[in-house]
Amino acid sequence: MSDTSLIYCSCWDPRNLGPKKLIRTIPFSAARGKPKLSPISAALKERNYFLPPQIKPFSGPRGKVLTRKYALHREKKMPEDTVKVSPGFSYSQSEDEISVLLGDEMFERSKKPKDKPVVKALLPRSDFVADLENQIMELTSIIEQMNRDHQNAQKLLREEMEHRYNELQKEFETSKREFKETHTLELAALEEKYKSSLKMEKTITQGKLEGMVKEYKYLKNMFRMYQDSIADEMEEKWSRRKVEWEKNEKMEREKVLLQQKYRLTKKFEVDVEEEKRKLEDLHLQTCDKFNKEREEFVKQHDVDLIQLEELQKAKEIVEEELQGQSLILESLNASLYHTQVDLQKEKNNVLQLEQLLQKKLNEMEEKYKFITQNLTEENTELRHMLILKNEELFQERNKQVKHEISYHDSFIENENQNKKEKS
Questions:
Q1: Number of structural domains, the chain?
Q2: Which residue windows are coiled coil (predicted)?
């Protein structure tokens, strides 16, 4: 075993002081009597773990560590509320900064007077026990502070996760609302376009009907010049046929319009229902994934709490053994070192959990972006398909109108030929 009372660790040395400042204890021997306590390392004192409760800062930046050379320059500027904690270790706090002064007395061994007898060196056992109790109290305060810091970090993580979930929920609702508004606007635009096209077709057919009526009147006047009786009969026939043709045309037009309206409305309803169903499925999937991840994090948190309770129990057992036995100081230091290493591992695990949470949140954001892009592309494709379908319907309608006009012209020509043959 080594003679050092405290094992050096890089996590205790944030200022890179190195293991040189750790003091070696004198090995036990019958000639020297009872062992002396080694002073607390400078690295731990810099972390403010061993300050009294009334002067230990709760939060805020760490103060500067002042050496003896720098202290000579700062003696005039030292504030009045300087507190001397131990020989060679003083603490002061001002509005701007926190300063700690470490002297050479802290790192030097207490020298024994040569002229005193051995009996006097064996007397300060009460001081030795008091120092041990102080060190135990200071170590317990360190562990309690670390536990509080760990609980605060977990609380902050939970709050940040809930805040992020609320933000994602709000973004999803706003995007859904925007998609609904754009869809309604597009539907209104298509309906207006369809109505305008129907009006144009109606005006065209009315113009053709007016031209046909004019031609009919001209022919009727011509027939009256040849024979009144034939003109009357032809007029009655033409009036009957005109009424029947108008009725048939109105019926066919209404049927076509109703069929087109029914098809378009049914298609739009099906598309809207499919989009709603897709959005609801995506929302449910994302919520389920997020709840599962949250349950896993809660389970991990419970496991961490159980481990912390086990460590607390181990600490209490070690404290009970220290009260009865003063000769196992090295084993106590080793167990404390292991507990601090475990706490550091737990902190690293918490950091890894934070990184995993951030990665998963980024993945969720990328998924939402991808979903929105797919929906916009589907809307553009549907719009293009509707435009093509309307164009096909308009072309078929124009073909039917042309076919009816040609049929009517051929019918009029046949009747004219029959009249000429009769005459």
A1: 2
A2: 129-178, 265-381
